[in-house]
Structures are given as structure tokens and as C-alpha cells.
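Worked Example 4.2. Consider the chain below.
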Amino acid sequence: MTATTERSHRRQRRRGLAAMMASLLLVVGLGGCRQDMQDQPKYRPYRPSAFYDDGRSERPLEDGTVARGLLNDDTLLFTGKVGAAPADVFPFPVTAEVLQRGQERYNIYCSPCHGAVGYGDGMIVRRGYRRAASYHIDRLRSAPPGYLFDVITRGFGVMPDYAAQVAVRDRWAIVAYIRALQLSQHATLADVPPAEQRTLAAGATAPAQPPAAAGHAHD
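Applying the procedure from the previous section yields the following C-alpha cells:
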């Protein structure tokens, strides 16, 4: 091998080594550019900040900012009050669908303590829990709907609030169903619509049908 060829081989080896070093440095450099989420620039809660004039990292909300779904602009619907007094009206019409929804929610959340008909004798009361209030006492029969809504929302005595479990409109539906329960236990014939009164009267005066004799075939 001539001296010229040997020098050429050495130059090639040096170039190859330089290329390998460059590649290694590139890989190391790119690895250093990676930034995991846990390592990203951020402020921990209540940490100070020199970036803002007030020194706080938490920024106050802009005036008038309301979180989506939390614009509680209907006072009657969301508080059950008119001014400072419990409302004696409902915020929407009470329909058959509302009563059905109220019955469903009542059976889930209220009947375990208050009982299926509202006398305060629910299943957990029968198992030793403190007796719940009966909806059929004079005080609660005369209480405005807004009062019952407020009790469901904020709780009363040993009764916890159900604001987290029961949506606003469902609370009103429960109140409507409680009113139906109260009426069902204290209704008179005068409370029945005239057409239904005639139906009830006809049923009361109709002669009873004798039971079929046992063992006799029907024609």
C-alpha cells in the first residue's frame, strides 16, 4: 500500500468518525429538546409570580364572567323565592309529565325516609333512623311550594341537602308530587271534577254483580 493510499484511508476514517460524532450529538441534542407534561412551565397553586403586577399567579375572573350552565338568572326557579319570601307559585306549569317525573325522583330520593305516601315512615325509619316529618301535618300542608324547594336545596335539621343529587327542575317536580300526595290524603268529593264525580256516583249506585258459581261454565 502506498503512502498516498494510506493517507486517503485515514481521511475516510476520520470523516466517518466525525459523522458518527455529529450524529450522536444530534441525537443527544434532540433528546434534550423533549419536554414532558409534568416538566412544562407552570405555576403551582398559590405560588407567587413576578410576571404580574399584583404578584399573583392565579388570575381573577373578568367582570361578568359566568361558567357555562351556571347562569342562574331566574330567581324563582333557582331559589324558590320571590324577594325574601318563599314563593307560593311554581316557576313552570305543573303537567302530568312533571308529576310523573316528580314521582320517579321522589321514590328514589325521598321515600326511603318520608315513605311512599309521605307520612315519614320510610324503610330506613323502620330500621331505626330518626323519623322524618310527615307531609300531612298542617304546617307542611300550608307551606308554600318555595319553602319545600328550599328545604330540598339546602336541607333542614338532620335532613341533608339534595342540591348535588337532584337537578333544579327535578326539585320542583318533587314539590309538585308532594302537593299531589297531600291532596290525595285530604281530598273530598268536592275536589273531584264534576264529570268524574258522576262517574264515581254511578259506580257507587251500580248493583254488585254476584260472583259466578264455582265449577259452572260460562256461556
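The first strand starts at residue 81 and ends at 82. Confidence is low (pLDDT under 50) at residues 213-219. Compare this with Example 4.1 before moving on.
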